[in-house]
Amino acid sequence: MSNSTPATIEDVARIAEVSIATVSRAIHTPEKVANSTRLKVHQAIAITGYTTNAMARSLRLGRSNMILVVAPDIGDPNFSNILVGLENEARAHGYGILIGHTQNDAQRGLEYLKFLNSNQAAGLILFTGILPFGHQTMTARLPATVGVFEPIYNGGLPYVGVDDVAGARKLIDLLLAEGHRKIAFIGDSRTRLAYSRRRQGFEEGMDAANMRPENRIVIDGDGTIESGRLALEQLFMQDRLPTAFMCVNDQTAIGVMLGLTARGYNIPRDFSVTGFDDVPLSGFMSPPLTTIRQPRTAIGKRAMALLLDLLGDGVTPDGEILLMPDLVVRNSVGPPKGLR
């Protein structure tokens, strides 16, 4: 192909030895084309350099085939696997993804809505748990929007995520079954719904076991390793130690484990620790962390499928789709010292 002449769909069809209609279907509705044919078309596209990206199609068609994904922290270990599910589902239906990284800055979230106003994006996936402040001034009506990972605090919008309460119940029930009676919940939050729901699961489990208030210790946190370490230091300073730590997420649990290890304690002989999410690092801790595994790729796939349904018929469903998490039992939990 000449570098000065843009490749055409005819060039792709000739090299792939298929019809122009088949090339078009492989691009726009790949689920309707055999895998072997789709592979030949994609190889021909790569050879010719034919521009088939969703943004270019959007300009030609006068509508967007891009989905805007707004996330507060793309370094979050949960983000990448959810993104895989989102992108695979989007690509299967001829859509591409734009990633808006807010870096926890509400103003950046508002700026990304300009993509929606200028028709550069058709719909919105929100990881932030909160609608961008001031969005009402940007658009009279928010486009098709689905929340993932973090329930939307001020939205009333459809949400796809893990069942935080059920996951927390699995953890607290495990600790209670091991014989723990004084348990600390580390990482409570009034602004992150996922964290408050995990606290709810903790309280429900303790209630079901008729645990008294003095056997429940609750410490606030922001989900970071440092917040776990600081919570541990706070408990040592106050001299009110539990026998087990139920942490709001794995990073918090890692902070608690590092703090305990630095003080010379053995896990789980001296204290038991649990996390939530099952991020990759949790399995490589010493000892490996007992936690709750989020079905992240399935969450992404389900959220994108829901968003594409909204774009298709415009009907906004009520409520939430909550996927059941799995308990992953490793070596950070054992019976308390008195029961050994």
UniProtKB/TrEMBL annotation:
InterPro entries: HTH_LacI (IPR000843), LacI/GalR-like_sensor (IPR046335), Lambda_DNA-bd_dom_sf (IPR010982), Peripla_BP_I (IPR028082). Residues 7-61 form the HTH lacI-type domain. Transmembrane segments: none annotated. Keywords: DNA-binding, Repressor, Transcription, Transcription regulation. It comes from the Bacteria. Gene3D superfamilies: 3.40.50.2300, lambda repressor-like DNA-binding domains (1.10.260.40). CDD domains: HTH_LacI. This is LacI family repressor for deo operon, udp, cdd, tsx, nupC, and nupG.
